[in-house]
Amino acid sequence: MKAAEHRPAAITRQGLGQLISSLQGRGYEVIGPRARDGAIVYDTLHQVEDLPAGWVEEQEAGRYRLRKAEGSGLFGYTVGPHSWKRYLHPAEVRLFEARKDGADFHILNDREPPPPRAFLGVRACELAAIGIQDRVLTEDRFLDPIYQSRRRRVFIVAVNCTRAAPTCFCASLQTGPRAREGFDLALTEVVEHGESLFLVEAGSEAGAEVVRELESREASPALCRRADEAVEQASSQLRRIDTAGLREAIAASFDHPRWDQVAGRCLGCANCTMVCPTCFCTTVEDASDVTGEHAERWRPWRSVGTWYMWRALEH
């Protein structure tokens, strides 16, 4: 997605509500963060009040808790347990169904594709994950038409991080905390005196067209500076990882006993596949009714642990 040259704008919380309404008016189903069931989840947004205002999360190894924090704005959380993969590369897809009509079978294609969707609140690390799936499923030798049809109908509103969790390390991999590309609009939230103000940057002509419909003003140098400081604050909170030679070290550890230790704890729950934003392994399953009059072919996610996959490749 090629970035367009447009000056940053400023919008209030009311302007963010107008953004949601504008996207809905263009036919998009707006998907974004909501606080529900003790977690930040991605679901349909109808209005700005659906966003998780005042909620932040505590994340440590093996720990995730939501708590209220005054003055944290609408996007004070970092990332939750959901990923955008569930909308672009869903867990189950019906490829086709077949129905018997006398001596003949009729092959029927899958249902109509989902409506165009606008993703609101995509973080830089999540953009990087979407980029990996784009590369594998749309830019490699074997293209996935299902993923392609969903991906081309998505409008992305990124949100730059102004807070990092203790488990975050995006800067070490050049995947955050600021979104650099791959978005139509990018927001940076600045909270002052309990009120949210958003710096809006357009990353595409489609994004700039949406901004022109909003009640906005040109962003002041002071707002741009405060937005930069907020993102820099998140950067200062990140864990730092030395990635020099990391790929080579992993490749050289193909038979390390640590893989056996990890595999020995596996319960087969498939949580790793559900939360990982870059997994793309699938399988194909056929099912028919007892009469033989109707059959379907489905493509579900395939949960294959790294250890088992490597052993299969080895043999």
Keywords:
10 helices, four-stranded antiparallel beta sheet
Task: Please tell me about this protein's structure.
This protein has 315 residues and is α+β, with helices and mostly antiparallel strands. The protein has one domain (9-244). The chain is built from 10 helices and 14 strands. The strands form 3 sheets. An 8-stranded mixed beta sheet has the order 3-2-8-9-10-11-1-12, with helices on both faces. A 4-stranded antiparallel beta sheet has the order 7-6-14-13, with no helix packed on it. The longest helix is centred in the last third of the chain and has 16 residues, at 221-236.
Short characterization:
The protein contains ten helices and 14 strands. By secondary structure, it is of the alpha+beta class.
Using the alpha-carbon principal axes, give the shape.
globular
Distance between the termini: 41 Å
Total strand count, please?
14
Helix content: 25-40%
Q: Supply Rg.
A: 22 Å
Average pLDDT taken over every residue? 90
Uncertain regions: pLDDT < 50 for 5+ in a row?
Answer: 306-315
Write the element-wise H/E pattern from the N-terminal end onward.
EHEEEEHEEEHHEEEHEHHHHEEH
Strand percentage lies at 25-35%
Largest beta-sheet characterization: 8 strands, mixed
- Lateral strand order in the biggest sheet: 3-2-8-9-10-11-1-12
The number of domains: 1
Tally of helical runs: 10
| Global structural class | alpha+beta
